[in-house]
Amino acid sequence: MDIEFSLALPREAIGIPMVRRALGDSLRSLGVTEDCVSDILLAVTEACANAVRHGGPANRYEVEAAVGYGRCDVRIIDRGHGLTRVPEQHPSADIENGRGILIMQAVVDEISFDITPGRGTTVHLRKHLDWDADAAFLRRSMLAAV
What we know:
Elements: E1 3-10, H1 16-30, H2 34-54, E2 60-68, E3 71-78, H3 100-107, E4 110-116, E5 120-128, H4 133-145
Antiparallel strand pairs: 1-2, 2-3, 3-5, 4-5
């Protein structure tokens, strides 16, 4: 793996931009295309928002990220009551919530859930990375110089 990190965050919305910054900067520094970075950050934001909203009674949640081998793997782990079911279709237009999982499914290559009722949910997101040709060339040149 090129980069691995984990964050333990308060179950408050203020932590989500920190996750986005750490992961986004990591991906960009490796030369991942902006479209690919945006997809990953959208999915991670949705998963973190769900952990913040539904991860109680615990007051923290964790984010583990690994970038390497041409993919990005992110796990968002909460200690809440656990997801009861994964929605299969979009909710009706008059409902404000309930689209997060469907959004995640639309922008990553793989999504899975490890659900233990009463003990928490782990959302595992995986996306194969698209590389910016100029950044990849520059990265290879810098590595060759070392």
